[in-house]
## 1
Amino acid sequence: MAQIGERTAAEELGVLIKQTQAVLNQRMDDALRPLGLNVPQYACLQALSDRPGITGSGLARRAFVSRQSMNVLLQGLEKRDLIERSDESGPRGERATTLTPAAVALLHSARAEVAAIAETMTAPLDANGLAQLHTLLTTCRDALLGDRGRHRDAGVTAS
């Protein structure tokens, strides 16, 4: 069987980014679980807080799930009285979604947990290193998105 050869530095970096993302996601899930949330639910609530009136498609992009998965996620959050959805559909057939006071309180606690994980992840970096990492990761992301993402994909552009 033929060997493919060693990975390039760029390939190794891609693997490292994916490994970091996987560990970060797991740590966030572990921290959010006692609050009754998972990462996509947290991302959805955070997006609704950040961008009131965001569409279901926008929520799905920001939570990194499909539109169908977002609809199921929203139904679950609605059953838990964390969101309210309008009875009337908007121009694109989507219902307006807002956070309830219970969701705002829960999101406050969840953000503290997620912030602590982010602080742990970046603690070894000084302010300059953190700024450099931010710039470099933004540059890599934007290179992959090309013109398509920088202008239209609100779920993936810089926060």
## 2
Amino acid sequence: MAVAADTGQARRTDRFGRAGTRALVVAGAVLVTALVWVVGEPLLGHDLVVTSPGQPAMDLGLAEIAFVALASSLVGWAALAVLERVTRYAIPIWTVAALVVLAVSFAPFAGVQASTGSKIVLALTHVTVAAVLIPGLWRTGTRRTAATPARPE
């Protein structure tokens, strides 16, 4: 059985298709995160060097920041796609899970040593990924009607 999406949703994703729109959202999350890094490190001079207990100091450059943003965005996209296949409540479940992941992503800040400016820039990278990804993927989500089963029978 085909999944019925609301017509407003179809209009929002027709131009690039759902996958294309989601790819643009992921690219946007990476781009905005890179912009935060550019402003924070080269322009404002906050060296993003963090030291975890028992580990050598790690300098987080643009490549590392962009990779983590890309990887987490793709995991978020995959999680939404899986949820859309198994439940009609995919969007609310995914949104809550994404917000929980965002909150948990701040936990390492307590255990690492870095300057206050570096921690702020890193926190902003987490927030910017979420600020682009959550509403962007949320808008592309399939909204099943109550009459549409989650799985074909």
